[in-house]
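Project outcomes to date are best conveyed with an example. Our students and postdoctoral researchers have been running inverse folding experiments weekly, and each run begins with a structure described purely in tokens. The record below, which covers 363 residues, was selected by the lab manager from last quarter's runs and is presented without edits.
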């Protein structure tokens, strides 16, 4: 069973980890750089499991591509290239450790700092995954403490900040305004929409007659919009109430908001949306009104210009950079980190074994 599609593509680089019963001394330093940067055994343990997950996914993809069975695979007997599973994982863990060091050093060399907002975001996300997503159970029982998890998470956050700084205005590899605009519109679009499900409350497909009535209703709305009626009026008629302004939290009172409260955002698969709806929205011209059919719904859409509202360029600035340049940046990090002279405590590093990594049946 495949565990994670591509674990390095996301900020949370240690998702879905499971138990490791290998013993390690808490706080033991297993790698150092320039007598300034260090990795403890707990953080390295997370990297080691990360490498194991990556190895399993690599094997899984190869088996799937070869139309071989991916059920009950004995991963430990597989090879990746000319390396045994265990050797590949061990080497990959060391690579991840070097990348960790590169991020820490580069972050300092660039004069970057974590702002109060950054720290608040980190604390919020760590707390969510640790307390509500079940990571406390996975980690604490297997030697990865909350402190170790947080340390590695902060490193991944720093990596993302280096990426956005390099490719933002003023950065060494800054993207042009046109590149950012193209990246935004390729991966994000907005429209005013109404959706009507093609299944009933019990999850059963609508009859042809019911589908025809729903489409007729939406086509009627489209005609009224084309005749100049406001979307807000039709929205209320269809939904029974208007969109409420949910700005009741004083802390969020100054938060940026879209100019059009009816605007719905559609994103590409690269941006994490697998619905496939973006392409049909992109085909519409700005202001065009159309009734679209998807596998699960009819959609009345009024295409809007995402570039006309600065909210979207600002809010999705970092996401756009990540989509456009994450692969290039990742390659640069891999190449640069290999040149670092990281000192490993081999006794501390070599005690971890792939055979002692256990994955719960639910993973």
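After processing, the design step wrote out the following sequence:
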């Amino acid at each position: 069973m495949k565990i994670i599609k591509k674990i390095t593509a996301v900020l949370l680089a240690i998702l879905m980890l499971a138990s490791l019963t290998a013993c390690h001394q808490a706080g033991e330093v297993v790698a150092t750089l320039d007598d300034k940067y260090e990795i403890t055994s707990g953080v390295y343990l997370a990297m080691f499991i990360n490498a194991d997950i990556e190895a399993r996914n690599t094997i899984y993809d190869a088996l799937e591509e070869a139309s071989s069975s991916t059920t009950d695979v004995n991963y430990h007997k597989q090879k990746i290239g000319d390396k045994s599973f265990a050797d590949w994982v061990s080497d990959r863990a060391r690579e991840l450790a070097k990348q960790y060091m590169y991020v820490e050093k580069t972050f300092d060399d660039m004069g970057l700092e974590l702002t109060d907002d950054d720290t608040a975001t980190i604390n919020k996300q760590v707390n969510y995954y640790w307390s509500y997503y079940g990571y406390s159970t996975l980690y604490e029982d297997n030697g990865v403490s909350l402190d170790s998890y947080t340390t590695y998470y902060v490193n991944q956050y720093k990596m993302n900040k280096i990426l956005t700084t390099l490719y933002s205005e003023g950065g060494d590899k800054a993207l042009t305004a046109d590149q950012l605009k193209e990246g935004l519109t390729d991966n994000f679009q907005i429209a005013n929409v109404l959706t009507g499900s093609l299944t009933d409350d019990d999850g059963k497909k609508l009859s042809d007659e019911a589908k025809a009535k729903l489409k007729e209703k939406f086509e009627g709305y489209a005609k009224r919009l084309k005749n100049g009626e406001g979307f807000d009026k039709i929205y209320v008629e269809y939904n029974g109430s208007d969109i409420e302004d949910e700005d009741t939290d004083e802390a969020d009172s100054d938060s940026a908001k879209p100019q059009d409260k009816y605007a719905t955002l559609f994103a590409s698969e690269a941006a994490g949306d697998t619905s496939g709806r973006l392409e049909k929205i992109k085909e519409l011209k700005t202001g065009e009104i159309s009734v679209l059919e998807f596998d699960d719904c009819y959609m009345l859409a009024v295409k809007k210009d995402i570039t006309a509202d600065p909210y979207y360029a600002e809010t999705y600035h970092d996401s756009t950079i990540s989509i456009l340049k994450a692969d290039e940046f990742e390659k640069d990090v891999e190449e640069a980190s290999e040149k670092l002279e990281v000192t490993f405590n081999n006794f501390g590093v070599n005690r971890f074994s792939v055979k002692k990594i256990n994955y719960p049946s639910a993973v």
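The radius of gyration is 25 Å. The chain has twelve helices and eleven strands. The training component of this project remains on track.
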